């Protein structure tokens, strides 16, 4: 009787452990689903022709980046790499036709945040963050001349209005706020003018929202596929455990019966 109670307690403990394991897997699944986001390196919205751009897809094992008009980026098939938080894809040489909006879809049918870049064949770009910046941060805008790396006089514009002239080619926005959000460009005398790009500022007091958009309802079925499979595995393991314990219990009883019979025979023979 004591042995059966002990077996029952062991099975119950195993069930609890397996159920906890199932819950951990589901929690991990939810974290992976809600952790999808797209980053870019270098983090700027404008590039010169022939420069290299790397996209980082956080939360997925394969970075399949999509361009708004060109569709899936074919170079991802050759340059895809795993990272500690997801994967990456590199476009080794960008061209003006690569300008536009980029994003990726995760395996559950969700779309990540978008990143917009502009590629120019001209001589001037504005180095401005492609990703949103947090309110209160210091943001540096740099007007860059393709033909020289030396400091140069540059003018900065917001919505086409001159807001700053810098002898270093840099404009620093200290303690950036929502009022600094907008469309910027710059110009260098004798070199030309950059394209326009938007600076996006996030409210530092607002709770960060995971940057994805649900585009299909298929992802909602994913946990309901995982749960039944894991429960079936759980039941199979419990059944297997009962079978093994029952088998060894019968073997033990058989051995005990044989041993008892042998001992009794020996005692009777001795008398």
UniProtKB/TrEMBL annotation:
GO cellular component entries: external side of plasma membrane
Signal peptide residues on this chain, from the entry's feature table: 1-35
Keywords: Disulfide bond, Membrane, Signal, Transmembrane, Transmembrane helix
A biological process from GO: cell surface receptor signaling pathway
TM annotation in the entry: 221-244
Domain spans labelled Ig-like: 88-200
Any one GO molecular function term: transmembrane signaling receptor activity
Protein name per the record: Ig-like domain-containing protein
Organism: Anabas testudineus
């Amino acid at each position: 009787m004591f042995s059966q109670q002990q077996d029952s307690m062991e099975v119950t403990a195993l069930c609890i452990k397996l159920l906890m394991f199932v819950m951990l897997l589901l929690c991990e699944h939810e974290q992976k689903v809600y952790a999808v986001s797209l980053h870019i390196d270098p983090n700027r919205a404008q590039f010169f022709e022939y420069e290299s751009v790397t996209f980082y897809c956080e939360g997925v094992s394969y970075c399949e980046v999509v361009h708004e008009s060109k569709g899936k980026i074919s170079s991802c098939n050759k340059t895809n790499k795993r990272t500690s938080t997801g994967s990456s894809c590199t476009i080794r040489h960008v061209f003006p036709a690569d300008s536009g909006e980029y994003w990726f879809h995760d395996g559950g049918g969700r779309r990540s945040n978008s990143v917009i870049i502009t590629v120019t064949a001209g001589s001037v770009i504005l180095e401005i963050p492609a990703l949103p910046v947090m309110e209160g941060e210091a943001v540096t805008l740099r007007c860059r001349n393709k033909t020289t790396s030396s400091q140069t006089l540059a003018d900065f514009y917001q919505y086409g209005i001159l807001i700053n002239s810098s002898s270093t080619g840099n404009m620093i926005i200290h303690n950036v706020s929502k009022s600094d959000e907008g469309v910027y460009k710059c110009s260098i005398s004798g070199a030309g003018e950059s394209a326009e790009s938007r600076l996006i500022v996030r409210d530092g007091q607002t709770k960060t929202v995971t940057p994805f958009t649900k585009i299909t309802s298929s992802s909602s079925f994913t946990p309901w596929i995982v749960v039944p499979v894991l429960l079936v595995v759980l039941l199979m393991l419990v059944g297997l455990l009962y079978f093994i314990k029952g088998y060894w219990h019968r073997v033990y009883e058989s051995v005990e019966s044989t041993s008892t019979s042998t001992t009794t025979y020996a005692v009777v023979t001795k008398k």
